[in-house]
Design a protein that fits this description.
The protein is 31% helix and 23% strand. The chain is α/β, with parallel strands linked by helices and 272 residues long. The strands form three sheets. The chain has a ten-stranded mixed beta sheet with strand order 3-2-1-4-5-6-9-13-14-15. The protein has a three-stranded antiparallel beta sheet with strand order 10-11-12, with no helix packed on it. It has a two-stranded antiparallel sheet with strand order 7-8. The longest helix is centred in the last third of the chain and has 15 residues, at 257-271. It is globular and about 40 Å long.
Length: 272
């Protein structure tokens, strides 16, 4: 198991946001009610390149840069230029710009909304992306949540798109994970309903990912302590990597980044 760092970008700045509060009106819009609903845990004027350089110094490969809405391209480019080949990029990726982002230095592109249409996977779009990027440089973001009104503890998780506001009919389950693994190099899975809330992980989702994913997978959502990281390692059987965002002191939280890096290095030595 590895720690995967992140750089989340919103309106051109590095931020940590409660993902479930994002809407299509909450980026550059003048819609005050949408902005009020957006829960921001952290925002900084430090450039994205500074975070990328820090991750490179600590050799934290496989982190992701996510563009949350428009106005983030320059900040994303700056991060990739600071560590060419060291970071993945997602947010608004399509068949038109996928190759461009790889050329800008991304190790992989991360895609969700473009390959899901009308609640289902558009295989023509997915297969076209694979041709453009190759399977080895494509990551599918299967961030998910349970439908309101369904069993809150045992109901299925559904992939959500468009800033995690639109439900698809695609369930995150063993059969679907194995099927989609033929098209991509990794999965990225945010537990949307706990993402950014530092309230603990979705244990059943981590167990599912550890049991069912035949390719590398990164889980994000709710991690607040080294104990939570130990729990991801245990429940995911060492197969599920982990992202920590708002809980880190570099993003205004209480969990020391240096302690997480030390934890990561210890895991790496034990696995080597």
């Amino acid at each position: 198991m590895k720690f995967r760092p992140c750089i989340d970008l919103h309106s051109g700045c590095v931020k940590q946001i409660v993902g479930s509060t994002l809407t299509s009106q909450s980026d550059e819009s003048e819609n005050n009610s949408a902005k009020e609903k957006l829960a921001t845990n952290f925002s900084t004027d430090l450039p994205s390149s500074e975070f990328a350089a820090m991750y490179q110094k600590d050799n934290l490969l496989g982190g992701h840069v996510i563009m949350l809405g428009p106005g983030n391209e320059e900040a994303a480019k700056s991060a990739l230029e600071a560590w060419p080949g060291g970071l993945q990029v997602g947010g608004g990726i399509t068949d038109v710009n996928a190759k461009l982002w790889l050329d800008r230095g991304a190790s992989h592109i991360i895609v969700t909304s473009f390959v899901f249409r009308n609640g289902a996977i558009d295989y023509e779009r997915l297969e076209n992306l694979v041709k453009l990027t190759t399977k080895e440089r494509l990551i599918l973001d299967l961030s998910c949540r349970r439908r309101p009104g369904e069993d809150p503890e045992n109901g299925p998780y559904y992939v959500v798109t468009d800033k995690w506001q639109k439900f698809t009919d695609f369930q995150v389950n063993s059969e679907n994970l194995k099927h989609l693994s033929k098209y991509c190099d990794e999965f990225l899975v945010h537990g949307v309903d706990v993402e950014g809330k530092q309230c603990g992980i979705l244990k059943d989702l981590v167990i599912l990912l550890g049991e069912a994913c035949p390719i590398p997978v990164t889980y994000a959502g709710g991690v607040r302590s080294l104990e939570d990281m130990d729990l991801v390692n245990e429940l995911g059987k060492g197969k599920v990597d982990c992202t920590v965002g708002s809980a880190l002191d570099i993003f205004g939280g209480a969990l020391r980044y240096d302690d997480v890096v030390a934890w990561h290095n210890k895991q790496s030595k034990e696995q080597s």
